[in-house]
Design brief:
3 helices, 6-stranded mixed beta sheet, single chain
Length: 119
């Protein structure tokens, strides 16, 4: 596996650990993953087998006053399809968080990431 640092020009987009043969695919995935709207961390992507990637990041929640009140570490399991596109399989949190569980955060992240990587 090869560690790759990707800088998209505005800010560092993330880091990936990939099979060297999959470098272009991994960089494409890093470019497609969403940023902003609470997903404020740096993406860390790791290739776990020939066509599966685990993408880690943080979601930063805001309170009524507009300040950050908590963060939720999550990972998204993404599959590379035979046509070269990506499909999000699932979103999981590193530890149980009542805020994330009760406020539909998993659904929000699933929808946001799915839309982003299918572009």
């Amino acid at each position: 596996m090869k560690r790759i640092r990707y800088d998209g020009g505005v800010w560092p987009y993330g880091t990936a650990i990939l099979n060297p043969k999959m470098e272009k695919v991994g960089l494409k995935l890093l470019e497609l993953l969403p940023r902003g709207s609470g997903i404020n961390g740096e993406w860390w992507v790791e290739q776990v087998n020939k066509c599966q990637f685990v993408c880690n990041n943080d979601y930063h929640a805001m309170d009524e006053m507009g300040g950050y009140c908590c963060h939720n570490e999550f990972n998204a399991r993404v599959t590379l399809l035979t046509d070269g596109s990506f499909r999000l399989e699932r979103v999981t949190f590193h530890k149980f968080n009542r805020h994330a569980h009760n406020n539909g955060l998993r659904d929000y992240l699933f929808d946001t990431i799915s839309q982003s990587i299918s572009a």
